[in-house]
Amino acid sequence: MLHFRITSKGETTKEQTHPYPIYKRILKNDLSKIAYNSNLVVAHNGTMPFIPIDGMNDTQTFILRNQDLIKQYEDFRKKIKMQKLTQSRLCFLSKKGNYQIVGSFEKKDGVLYSNSSYKGYLEW
């Protein structure tokens, strides 16, 4: 999983760069660590339709406020709910390399992209 932070909400800092760890119980300071050991991580692309908690970005806020929902990321119905809440794309990656996506992704040459901005770069 690779993510580039453009910063639509929050600050441009290492602490606000994805992916974020998903633990059994997630605390606010867990989401600002730049090094961690977790069996599951999540990254997000898009702008979520709510105001973030002070000092956090929209993804961190979504994780903190929706912990029970996020932990059910493999359930199709929960994916639909996450899509409606976030109005964007999420990718969950396990330590074993398994992944689950929420939202629309484009696939090209075996790679999933969360938007089409990659097209100009691949043509170089």
Structural class: alpha+beta
Largest sheet report: 4 strands, antiparallel
SSE pattern: EEHHHEEEEH
Query: How many structural domains are formed by the residues?
Result: 1
- Unreliable segments (pLDDT under 50, ≥5 consecutive)? none
Mean pLDDT: 87
Say how many strands there are: 6
Strand content is: 15-25%
Radius of gyration, rounded? Answer: 14 Å
Helix content: 10-25%
Number of helices, where a helix is a run of at least 4 consecutive DSSP H or I residues: 4
Order of strands in the sheet with most strands: 1-2-3-4
Distance between the termini: 22 Å
Outline: globular
Jot down its keywords.
4-stranded antiparallel β-sheet, single chain, 22% helix, globular, 124 residues, two-stranded antiparallel ribbon, alpha+beta, 4 helices
What are the SSEs and their pairings?
Elements: E1 20-21, E2 40-45, H1 58-65, H2 67-70, H3 76-86, E3 89-94, E4 99-102, E5 106-108, E6 111-113, H4 119-122
Antiparallel strand pairs: 1-2, 2-3, 3-4, 5-6
